[in-house]
Amino acid sequence: AELYGERPAPPTYNPVAMKAWSEFVEAAVLRYKDRIKYWEIWNEPNHHAYWGKGPDAKDYGKLVEVTATLIKKLDPEAKVIVGATAGILPEWTGEYLEMGFADKIDIISYHQYGGEPEERFPKTLELRKVIDKYNPDIETWQGECGYPSQSSTRDFRGRAPWGVNIQAKWLLRQAFTDVALCGSTLSNYFKLYSDGDRNILQTRSFLTEVDSTIGYYAGYGRVRGAGVNEKCLLHNPTGEEKAGYYAYQNLCAVVDNRYELIESKATIEIKDPGVFYGIGSFEDAFPSVPLSGAFKTKNNNHLVVYWLPWHGQENLPKLASVDLAIPLKFSDPVLVDLLSGEVYQLDVEAGDNNSAFKNLPLADYPMLIVEKEELVLKN
User: Fold this and answer.
1) Residue 97 to residue 66: CA distance in whole angstroms
2) Strand, coil or helix: what is 38?
3) What is the pTM of this model?
4) Structural domain of residue 339, as residue ranges?
5) Hey, what's the torsion of the CAs at 238, 239, 243, 247, to 10 degrees?
6) Distance (Å, rounded) from C-alpha 94 to C-alpha 352?
7) Could you tell me if residue 289 is inside a domain?
């Protein structure tokens, strides 16, 4: 639940306001501590729309220190989440962590909107270095992010082309980018439904010569501040499911807390690039290099995910074909297409602790290799 108003001024500038804030936090924690164990302090404190004054990391740190100390005192089992920043901000994060209360923080979250999910990886490495300097036990969460299925969305817009399949591919890639590449322990998708009105026209008080010629131009930024937020996974206004709804359903049905991330890198050899022109052994530049990650259950059943971080396409007339080898053992592997939900039996060349797969499909969204016994199959 959101425990803040709309565009509130922070209480840090007024002792009376801080006292009232502390009383509110105490009342909330005492009332809900049997049901709520995770408390996130503020939302996007680096954004003027939510901080109410000029954003300042030190002022946010004052709020965190008082609030986190109080939460831990009232409920020692509670988890304190801080940050919730608009973007991944290593330097800004370091400014409040250096104030000396990092031991009271369990999780640092961020909201990183952008064109390709994988592009956040470099910044998360920088963030992790800053966090480790003050408390390496702090986890990171990707707390809010989504991608629109069409161009007329309000707020973050992304870049062309748009489409329901592109959105579905994006959310699958985000999940594995956050967990397998960035090391976050939670990846959140925003959002399920938007009840806005698509017929609301955006006011344009002034149009430049460029705007008047090719249409309002804001690069990849926001072009509408009202209307439908097309990052939603249900169509407005019908509530009908988009492709992303089913893709997310498939993801959650296969990958849950049975699995933990492990360090094991797949070797992927391109046999046929399909429609991904230019990929191959001679290409070593992003986004033309396939990515992968590996997980295992307590029973040592493995899961391998692999994908190409190409800008998503709405339709693919021909997938790439690859050979994949990994130093993990598989007994009865199947291939799971998370976009369609289809499952295919796989042949494997297995050694004592390694597996090789021939002629696997490679797409601009994650495919999974998983032990068949870990799945509940519909047919």
Assistant:
1) 14
2) strand
3) 0.94
4) 256-374
5) -170
6) 46
7) yes
